[in-house]
Specification:
It is a single chain. The chain is α/β, with parallel strands linked by helices and about 240 residues long. The chain has one domain: Aldolase class I (TIM Barrel, Alpha-Beta Barrel), CATH 3.20.20. The chain is about 35% helix and about 20% strand. Helix 3 (about 85-95) packs parallel to helix 4 (about 110-120). The longest helix is centred in the C-terminal third of the chain and has 16 residues, at about 225-240. The radius of gyration is 18 Å and the shape is globular. The termini are far apart.
Length: about 240
């Protein structure tokens, strides 16, 4: 096997929400975005335990009897594509074993290796966080254009694609926001599934244990009824576009 190593935050052996079936999930260290609602600030830097390709593959294959062909492996983070060398080598090995691969990503520069990774994976969960440059600069501390180009590329290569957007009370829980989101997604509605995800504060304790101030201290978790109303509205707007 090749010699690069991956810096990994943690493993989840029997995940059920990050792709089809039972998933072995790998949470990679490193993220170039600073989302105002991030619940994993401990994954931002590239400091952590490193694993060889052989070590990671051994862990995965140990759980194959559980996820079988109906599930697979999900690469998440942080932002897994920051470690493109290791992720590419891992995907190549997983394909040799005919293991289903999902990546959970918020988009990154489309390097040759990143495109190769996308070519190998079976499913993409894409986190479209906001709808324009101003929102990205204010709430994500990143560039919308890079994200949008990545999203467009995913629609062009015909991957099984789920687009997820976190809804935060007082920030993007409005009809206007849903309208803007629908306009972005509508041209590609037949190529994707759109899901709204409720904001939660599960990561607040991690901020307390660090020197980072929790940016949404006074924001309550999103009411489930509100989420259902907004998801219905998004679906209606997407379905109304011919």
């Amino acid at each position: 096997m090749k010699g690069s190593k991956g810096i990994i935050h943690s493993f989840e052996s029997l995940g059920a929400l990050e792709g089809k079936g039972i998933r072995f999930i790998i949470f990679f260290q490193g993220c170039h975005k600073r989302c105002i609602y991030c619940h994993n600030p401990d994954t931002w830097n590239l400091k952590g335990k490193s694993f060889s390709l052989e070590e990671v593959l051994k862990r995965i294959l140990r759980y194959r009897p559980y996820f079988k062909d109906s599930g697979g492996v999900t690469l998440s983070g942080g932002e897994c594509l920051i470690q493109e060398d290791f992720v590419l080598e891992l995907c190549q090995e997983l394909k040799k074993h005919s293991i289903n691969i999902t990546i959970d990503t918020s988009g990154i520069a489309l390097t040759k290796k990143v495109k190769s990774i996308i070519g190998l994976v079976d499913n993409v969960i894409f986190d479209l966080k906001m709808t324009n440059e101003d929102e990205y600069q204010k709430y994500i501390k990143s560039e919308f254009n890079e994200t949008y180009l990545f999203f467009r590329y995913l629609t062009e290569v015909e991957k099984s694609l789920t687009v997820r957007t976190v809804i935060i009370p007082g920030i993007n829980d409005s009809e206007d926001f849903i309208e803007r989101l629908a306009k972005i997604l509508a041209p590609y509605k037949n190529k994707l599934k759109a899901e709204l995800i409720p904001y939660h504060d599960y990561g607040k304790e991690k901020y307390t244990l660090s020197t980072i101030k929790y940016p949404l201290e006074d924001v309550k978790i999103l009411d489930q009824k509100c989420l259902l109303v907004l998801q219905k509205l998004l679906n209606q707007k997407l379905n109304s576009v011919i």
